[in-house]
Amino acid sequence: MSPEVEPQRKIIHVDMDAFYASVEQRDDPALRGRPIAVGGARERGVVAAASYEARTFGVRSAMPSVTARRLCPDLTFVPPRFDVYKAVSGEIRSIFETYTDLVEPLSLDEAYLDVTEDRARMGSATAIAEAIRRRIKTETGLTASAGVSYNKFLAKLASDHNKPDGLCVVTPRQGPDFVAALPVSRFHGVGPVTAAKMALLGIATGADLRAQSLAMLKEHFGKSADYYFWAARGRDDRPVRAHRERKSIGAERTFFEDLRAEDDLVAALHPIAEKVWERAAQGGALGRTVTLKVKYADFRQVTRAQSPGGAVTSFDTLRAAGTGLLLGLCPVERGVRLLGLTLSGFDPLRGFAEEQQLGLAL
Questions:
Q1: Binding site per annotation, positions
Q2: Are 143 and 137 in contact (CB under 8 A)?
């Protein structure tokens, strides 16, 4: 008896279009059609999201607000409302779960779906993606782009291909040629530093990457070599993970003015620790390691970690551990512009798993 062959995966990657900015424009008609940025307008503010009108001026997420304002003098800054974005994300997640239980969110505004099992009897993954996009528009008033393919790598590439409000399907026959024609800078997992390194090696496109041997890629890119080697051939065997173990819980804060006094630093750490503990308590997580992050005015960054002994079972224990680490760095020679605190090393019996992120045609 021949072994049973698993059906080819059918993966959808859904990516909301300018999610935070689109929610703000949806809720405030006066912002529609205008360049807006979600984030802080202060000198040290950062753009969390930019509307498509702002993107035409070169405004991008993670850009300093002063740079964004220089690129687009008419830019309107809107303070973020993460509680609203989270609620809308929950509505979208409910739509996904109508079609599959295999949903792996990457953030509030994007997720992978494995729809290999045609639970809704739609006939194809493309039909499911179209139905999801229609429902998102009808039920939330927002638009989403989707990519449909036979693996996660290609589905994510495809979702970005016809943005905004677009759909792109990459079949197994099309996959290798689709990858070959793309700049490697478009590959998920190839950041600016890696793309620049590849450029120095003469690797500009997927075709260039495919021409390299695995040995050569390992020599220059180490553990990432296997991923690059197979991605360049349109291969990616990673499954959609409906449950992904969370390795840490953290919070941080950037200060408008640099902090130097020990009392000010200790006071500033308190609400950060409160936020970490609130998140840990909500998830039922018992971590063992507390890590402090300090970024100085000259952008130099240090981290210090401590395991108090056993699980951190109270806010006071967490705060005391973080404060002890902080005092160990005092007095500070330079001002401190950012403090962060992270809880990790979760007890596998009490830690939490964060819900995230097979005969159907594409």
A1: 15, 109
A2: yes
Model confidence pLDDT, tens digit, residues 231-251: 999 999 999 988 655 677 888
Query: Active site residue: 6, 24, 110, 245, which one?
Result: 110
Structure tokens at 50: 């930019």
Catalytic-residue membership of 257: no
CATH class held by domain 175-231: mainly alpha
Planar angle of CA 287, 293, 296, nearest 5 degrees: 170
Cis peptide leading into residue 80 (ω within 30°): no
Assign residue 139 a region (left: φ > 0; alpha: ψ between -120 and 50; beta: otherwise).
alpha
CB atoms under 10 Å from CB of 57, counted, come to 16
The annotation places the binding site for Mg(2+) at: 15, 109
Matching CATH number, 7-172, of 3.40.50.2300, 3.40.50.300, 3.90.1150.10, 3.30.70.270: 3.30.70.270
The first and second tokens of residue 306, run together, are: 């401590």
Enumerate the domain spans of the chain: 7-172, 175-231, 243-344
pLDDT in tens, 273-309: 888 887 776 656 678 899 999 998 887 888 999 887 7
